[in-house]
Amino acid sequence: MALEVSRRKFLAGGAAAFSAAALGLPRLAFGQETRLRLMWWGSQPRAERTMKVSELYMKNNPGVTVDGETTGWDDYWPRLATQVAGRNAPDVVQMDYRYIFEYARRDALAPLEGYVPDVLNVSDFDKAALDGGSVDGSLYGISLGANSSAMMVNAAAFEEAGIEIPDQSLTFDELKRIGEEITKAGKRKSFYGLSDGSGVEPFFENFLRQRGKALYTAEGKLAFDAEDTREWFELWAAMRESEACVPPDLQALDQRQIETGMVSLGHAAVSYAHSNQLVGYQSINKDPIVMHAYPRLAAGVGGGHYRKPSMFFSVSKQSPNPEAAAAYISFFVSDPEAAAILDVERGVPESAKIRELIAPKLDETGRAAVEYIGGLGDLAGPLPPPPPLGAGEIDVMLVRVSQEVAFGQQTPQAGAEAFVAEAEAILARN
Hints:
The chain is an alpha+beta fold. It has 18 helices and 13 strands. The chain has a 6-stranded mixed beta sheet with strand order 1-3-2-4-13-7. Helix 3 packs antiparallel against helix 14, helix 10 crosses helix 18 (412-429) and helix 17 (391-406) packs antiparallel against helix 18 (412-429). The longest helix has 18 residues, at 412-429.
């Protein structure tokens, strides 16, 4: 059966929990050998695909029941932290690159190398893919796909405004001009050229990397200063002033989910996401959505992007069934039938066998996601150092401070100084 998740639930930002019984999926009688809990963040299309894979896994493994739980990005991390602290963590947890080091070093995740290769099949993963999920010499996360940050562009809105989608030479100045032209075209109600990217950490990171800097050093310190942040906030203040991007009251509606992005809500022609999210964006938008790399600071400047694990599956240290959890992850990343269900919604598969298997079957959206990763060229640079403890808290703080600047509660200078001071305090505390 098809899984239908209430759109209202997602827009409200609340957690949605799904069990096999609630979905009408196959369910074992009491006394089954193993029950696994799985938790992830993401959109309704991701929920549908994930539960279909769980249904397939239960069909192939009649001694196992998998219960799923999902919510949006912003609600996910407080919810997971609460469950870990309460000794009620799910067996399998979806992890992000910025959080996996924090959770692993706090002994919240189980090392997985002991399950390779007998239980956990990652034999044809690139070394870089495994390194991305490794912390202090142990494997704590299995990458579910490769991706990079991207702009999600409503191609129909560009066409209505008589604007061609630019090539990879796009600069910030040109992006601002395009945003202004789309807004002035006035083809749609309460519609602007761009979303406000000032609180989007991957976009800020891209900006820093093009300046020869980064978010963090290898030692876990800030790799940027208040001057960098002030220039970033001023860049977006100019976008708002010229109406190239949405005003702050509209941007505040974005809860960092596909459903609440400015493109999906019909308020902008451009939003900011990751390449694996193209599948989700297209599935809930009637207009054609295409991807574009972030703009260059100036002609010839690049290196802001990088290829990264889109997300991981990890096993909780609290799991009573870590081997069964590892077996489920192995199925998720290496089974051909599971791969056909998952497509590239979580990124380009890390398994060479799976990539080869699904390539001929990808639709236009899937091929676009694969081609985007391979076509970044000089826009891409090396993977940055792992984020330190507290990086997730700093990410959330960037959203808050950027909103304060956008609403005029702080100047770009004051906001930048406050942001850097608080970020340094968070890192020192951790």
